[in-house]
Amino acid sequence: MLTTDQVIRATGASADNVNQVWPLVQQALQDWDIFTPNTEIAAAATIGVETPNFWPVREKYASNMPATDYFTKMYWNNANVRHMLGNLSPKDAYTYFGRGLVQITGRDNYDLYGSLCHLELLAQPDLALDPKNAADILAAFFSRTHIQQVADAGDWRRVRIRVNVGLRGWDQFAQIARSLGAHVVG
């Protein structure tokens, strides 16, 4: 089991945040029956990249427009994205933006992970910001996307791609994974 001290050193995150969040993540991985050394590494590296300080976050945006306009542009105006996320109206685009440790996005994901984790996420999307809920959502996401199998195979690039649909943050992810003992190539 990775200790909070190991995670703090690897991620550079706040000791207070890691001490609160990491045990919740470990418990959630156990509850979802996906607790392995490499899945722990994948979770710590993912959180280290996806959150600024190992704490559940709201999706950030860099824009000079209001948040409602930005999220509408990102998650409603593009029909393919709208369909992929299950957004039914422009309001869904700015209601179901990314939240959590692994940022779920879109009406369908809030519905799915709310159901899987027994949370009323459609009615109360900010529940995804509670550390315990965010840990459970991360574990449910890892389980549903088979990240344990990919991590246990040592395919760290595929772990990153499954979380982010790309390699954004790859260098930081790889550095954290290496610091925690993973053999990461490239």
Summed up, the helix count is 11
The low-confidence parts are none
SS content category: mainly alpha
Distance between the termini: 25 Å
Strand content: under 5%
Strand neighbour order, sheet with most strands: 1-2
> How is the biggest beta sheet arranged?
2 strands, antiparallel
Average of the residue pLDDT scores: 95
Helix content: 55-70%
SSE sequence, one letter per element: HHHEHHHEHHHHH
What does this structure look like?
It is a single chain. The mean pLDDT is 95. The protein starts with a helix and ends in a 7-residue tail after the last helix. The chain has helices at 4-11, 15-31, 37-50, 67-75, 79-85, 90-95, 107-117, 131-144, 147-152, 156-164, 170-179, and strands spanning 57-58, 99-100. It is globular. It is mainly alpha-helical and 186 residues long.
Question: Keyphrases for this structure?
Answer:
two-stranded antiparallel ribbon, mainly alpha, 11 helices, 186 residues
Topology:
Elements: H1 4-11, H2 15-31, H3 37-50, E1 57-58, H4 67-75, H5 79-85, H6 90-95, E2 99-100, H7 107-117, H8 131-144, H9 147-152, H10 156-164, H11 170-179
Antiparallel strand pairs: 1-2
Helix pairs in contact: 1-2, 1-11, 2-3, 2-8, 3-11, 7-8
Summarize the structure.
This protein is an all-alpha fold and 186 residues long. Helices cover 60% and strands 2% of the residues.
